[in-house]
Design a protein that fits this description.
elongated; binds (2S)-amino(hydroxy)ethanoic acid; binds manganese (II) ion
Length: 396
């Protein structure tokens, strides 16, 4: 096969089309399990069918498009089409669209190797079912009781559909995800490709801060039990402690709700989520215990454990295949850890998973101004294409 290359104008056209499927007017909005996410995946199904590939939507809505035999293990690749609220154009969608272009080019060049499968996973971003939902279900990581049937029902889902979507450990030979870095390491080290060695873990705690609602005009300051003032000191403590850590732990309170949330009522209750991330699960748990002890000693709180995603190292074989491709293409690359979570993290459970990062301008993501250059996108897409061929050669 001659040296196939992607056609970046296709990537641009398709990515901008996906971007036009948008429910909001600030940035891009295709929330997990929303109609916009569904429409985007329906569009993808049409594109895959137009390429005469074997296409199906699984029991929870993940879209699969395969070039080659359906009854042999495949090299899989893909990402997600949902976004955060007021998100960017590139997060997730770029990996799916580049995967689509790789399939188109390889089919056009008469590819005859091991089967290749593009997967668009649903519900990757944070959502009531816990993010990376579609890929965790595929990898068998969602167990009975992890999510309540009532919650699942709201999204027309249930445990039997989740179990039906599970793939066996030998369904895929490897999984490759191209994604924007969402940080500034590549930009500051002046590299065009990131080869991801590990993906940080995520642990969330849902904290109910208990105060006492009362009249904001008649309650003396020294007689108040203001849940929001308590929550503010908790948020401050989380940030200060995480900053003082001498490891890669980061911690965020990104979600908070005040009750009754009225101008003339002293807040009686606050629900907030503390998210801790890091590359060492034991360090993360130690840090969380420190937060829990401090909160219990200084405030009245009830703490519920939220989503738990262990950090994972990625496949050496896939990393080496990406490196070889970069060396052959004379593209400078950088080995690095991902602070963001990705569907590839879930797929480490059932196959050899790897990730290719391309630079994010100013490291900005989960924001309307998220940006990656078409030049970097073209380099990344060709590295993805050649890495797929490199991985397929290893099998033949
Ligand atoms: O939260 C994450 O790390 C990913 O962007 N969903
Ligand atoms: Mn994201
Ligand atoms: Mn993403």
């Amino acid at each position: 096969m001659s040296f196939p290359k992607v056609y970046v104008e296709n990537i641009k056209k398709n990515l901008l089309h996906i971007g036009s499927i948008n429910s909001g007017n600030i940035g891009y909005n295709r929330l997990a399990f929303s109609n916009e996410e569904k429409k985007a995946n329906e569009w993808l199904e049409e594109q895959l069918k137009d390429l005469n590939l074997s296409v199906y939507k699984d029991s929870i809505g993940n879209v699969h498009g395969r070039l080659g035999s359906l009854d042999k293990p495949a090299i899989a690749f893909g990402s997600h089409l949902d976004t955060v609220k007021n998100g960017g154009l590139y997060d997730g969608a770029l990996g799916v669209i580049i995967g689509l272009e790789c399939l188109r080019v390889l089919k056009e060049h008469g590819y005859q190797g091991v089967p290749l499968e593009l997967i668009s996973f649903v519900g990757e971003e944070a959502n009531p079912l816990g993010g990376t939902f579609g890929s965790r279900a595929t990898a068998g990581l969602i167990k009975d009781g992890d999510v309540s049937d009532v919650e699942l029902e709201k999204f027309d889902l249930n445990m039997s559909k989740i179990k039906e979507a599970r793939k066996s450990d030998n369904a895929y030979l490897s999984f490759l995800e191209l994604h924007i870095e969402q940080g500034s390491v590549l930009e500051t080290t002046n590299n065009q490709i990131g080869i991801v060695t590990a993906i940080a873990g995520i642990s969330r705690m849902h904290v109910h801060v208990i105060g006492k609602a009362s009249h904001s005009g008649t309650t003396p300051m020294n007689a108040r039990n203001d849940a929001l003032v308590s929550a503010a000191s908790i948020i401050q403590y989380v940030s200060e402690r995480a900053t003082k850590q001498n490891n890669d732990i980061v911690a965020t309170v990104g979600k908070l709700e005040v009750f009754p949330n009225s101008e003339n009522v002293v807040p009686g209750d606050v629900q907030l989520t503390i998210e801790v991330r890091g590359s060492d699960w034991h360090e993360m748990k130690e840090f969380e215990q420190r937060l829990t002890d401090w909160m219990n000693a200084n405030h009245r709180v009830e703490i519920a454990v939220g989503v738990q995603k262990h950090p994972n190292t990625l496949s050496e074989n896939v990393q080496k295949a990406i490196e070889k491709t970069c060396q052959n293409s004379k593209v400078n690359y950088h080995y690095m850890v991902s602070g963001a979570n990705h569907d590839a993290n879930s797929l480490t459970e059932i196959t050899e998973a790897g990730m290719i990062f391309i630079p994010s301008k100013d490291g900005l993501s989960h924001h309307p101004d998220e940006y990656s250059s078409w030049e970097d996108i073209e380099v990344g897409a060709n590295v993805m294409l050649q890495t797929i061929l490199e991985l397929s050669k290893k099998v033949n």
